[in-house]
Design goal:
This protein is of the alpha/beta class and about 240 residues long. The chain has two domains: about 5-135, Periplasmic binding protein-like II (D-Maltodextrin-Binding Protein, domain 2); about 140-245, Periplasmic binding protein-like II (D-Maltodextrin-Binding Protein, domain 2). The chain contains ten helices and ten strands. The strands form three sheets. Strands 8-7-9-6-10 form a five-stranded mixed β-sheet. It has a three-stranded antiparallel β-sheet with strand order 4-1-5, sandwiched between helices. Strand 2 (about 45), helix 3 (about 55-70) and strand 3 (about 75) form a beta-alpha-beta unit. The longest helix has 17 residues, at about 55-70. The two termini are about 35 Å apart.
C-alpha cells in the first residue's frame, strides 16, 4: 500500500471498512508500518484482548507467522482494552492490533468512549493514521442466562442485572445498542447494565451475581464453556423477522 497516495489509501480503507461491517474485527496497523520498516526494526509491538478471545488467538498466530516467515519478533500485550489500544495505534505507540470496525467508526465520529472534547480530538487524529490489513468474522454475541433464572426471552430482562462488557470498551456499547434494538429497553432504565472487566464479569456470573451475561465470543469459546460447567444455560436469540430487517 506504500505506493498509493494517502488520499487513495484512505478511500480504499473506507471502502474496505464499509464492505466488512458484518466482521467483528480487522487486523490493523499504523501508517508507518510498511514491510521495509518492519523488517529493519526486527521487533514489533502489538496489543490484543483477553485470553480466550478469538482476537487473542489471532494475534498469537500472527506473532508466530511474523517470527517464522519474516524473522520479526512481535511483543504482544494481552488483556488490553481495545478502545484504548486504538488510540495507541493512532499515535504510533504500537504497530498493530485487532480492531473491531465499530471502534474505528467511533474514533472517526468522536463517539462512545471518545466523545469528550479531549478524546474526540485524539481519536479523530489517530484514525487518520490507521490502515486495515485484513478482515475476519471473529465473534458472535452470546447472551447467556442460567437455567432456572426465569428468563426465557429478551423481554424477561426487565429489571434484571445484565453484564454488557468492560467499562471503556466497544462491546458494552454494542451490546446495549443490540438490546435496545431487540427490546426497546434502555440501559439502566429498564434493566441494570453491569460493566466490568471481562474476567470480573465472568466471575460475577459464575457467582450468581448476574442474571444475564452478554459477550462477543467465538463459537466454542472457553468462557462460554466455563459457564456451562457451572450450570445449564440458555442462549437468548432474536426473532428471524428482526434479524432479516
Amino acid at each position: 500500500m506504500g505506493a498509493e497516495s494517502p488520499a487513495k489509501e484512505r478511500n480504499n480503507v473506507m471502502k474496505f471498512l464499509r464492505s466488512t461491517t458484518a466482521a467483528a474485527a480487522l487486523m490493523a496497523g499504523a501508517v508507518s508500518m510498511s514491510s521495509n520498516s518492519a523488517e529493519s526494526a526486527q521487533i514489533m509491538t502489538a496489543d490484543t484482548g483477553a485470553t480466550g478471545n478469538i482476537v487473542h488467538a489471532m494475534m498469537l498466530v500472527y506473532g508466530k507467522l511474523f517470527s517464522s516467515h519474516l524473522g520479526i519478533s512481535v511483543q504482544i500485550n494481552d488483556s488490553q482494552t481495545l478502545t484504548r489500544s486504538a488510540i495507541k495505534l493512532g499515535r504510533n505507540q504500537i504497530d498493530m492490533m485487532p480492531l473491531p470496525p465499530a471502534i474505528y467508526g467511533m474514533m472517526r465520529g468522536g463517539r462512545g468512549p471518545y466523545k469528550s472534547a479531549q478524546m474526540k480530538a485524539a481519536a479523530r487524529k489517530g484514525s487518520e493514521n490507521i490502515r486495515s490489513v485484513m478482515g475476519y468474522n471473529a465473534n458472535l454475541f452470546h447472551a447467556v442466562t442460567f437455567d432456572g433464572s426465569g428468563i426465557t426471552n429478551w423481554k424477561d430482562i426487565k429489571g434484571k442485572r445484565v453484564f454488557t462488557g468492560p467499562p471503556s470498551g466497544a462491546a458494552a456499547i454494542l451490546a446495549e445498542l443490540m438490546i435496545n434494538i431487540i427490546t426497546g429497553y434502555k440501559a439502566n432504565e429498564d434493566y441494570n447494565a453491569i460493566r466490568l472487566p471481562w474476567g470480573g464479569g465472568l466471575q460475577a456470573m459464575m457467582d450468581g451475581k448476574l442474571d444475564v451475561y452478554v459477550r462477543p465470543a467465538a463459537v466454542g469459546s472457553a468462557s462460554i464453556v466455563q459457564l456451562g460447567s457451572r450450570k445449564k444455560f440458555r442462549l437468548l436469540g432474536a426473532d428471524k423477522d428482526l434479524v432479516e430487517s
